[in-house]
Amino acid sequence: MENLIYGLIGQTLKHSFSQDYFTNKFKNESIKGAEYRLFELNSIHRFPEIISAININGLNVTIPYKLEIMQYLDELDESARKVGAVNVIKFAGSQLIGFNSDYYGFKKSLILWLGNEIPKSALILGTGGASMAVLAVLNDLKISTQLVSRSKTENSITYQELSEFDHYLKDCKLIINTTPLGMFPNDTSFPDIPYESIGPQHLLFDLVYNPENTTFMRKGAVKGARTKNGLEMLHFQAEKSWEIWNR
Prior knowledge:
Layout: E1 4-10, H1 17-28, E2 34-40, H2 47-53, E3 58-61, E4 75-76, H3 78-83, E5 88-92, E6 95-99, H4 102-114, E7 121-125, H5 129-140, E8 144-149, E9 156-158, H6 159-164, H7 167-171, E10 174-177, E11 203-206, H8 215-222, E12 226-228, H9 231-245
Parallel strand pairs: 1-2, 1-3, 4-6, 7-8, 7-10, 8-9, 10-11, 11-12
Antiparallel strand pairs: 3-5, 5-6
Helix pairs in contact: 4-5, 4-9
């Protein structure tokens, strides 16, 4: 019987959650002949050689290729069109179809965490592929958003502006880090926001999951904020990936 090969493409994957998660899933659910591989690509242009050399059944996509991968796909599912980024690829015969399970994972995790306390406004730190899923979820929940980036754009303010104008943190109770800042092994880094303005009314959600308690979360918790990391979101999006590959 031919092995079922799944995997993850990205730039730096040494500390990937996905390989351990799916390896354990295959073992615990007695899924025979399946393996999950890591495909580190220094350029997205290497993607065609990977899929031509190996018979792959499904892929996840991570930083920094959630947008660049779309040029190689034959079709985008509604989830990927809605978000504008892809983190799951389904191999349907000769067709490559892009999906987004980050939307599903983040929305489910966020709602479970917030319960009935849905804030009116939120800050999204970062403007990469992960931020697009977060933005789509918040829009659907009718939460107004402000993007924050290192460089000012038409849709975002800078971290310096966030520090200069205190109304942003007064108005936005939910703050979501979608950047890799704080991720192991660079776990002493953190988004440059005015933590002195954080208080018990704030909710800090970090999409980073390794370490479990990031510097961003710790600095918020010291000020009384509620915090949550991205591990539960990853579990939800991983299970959604498996559902997509096998339906």
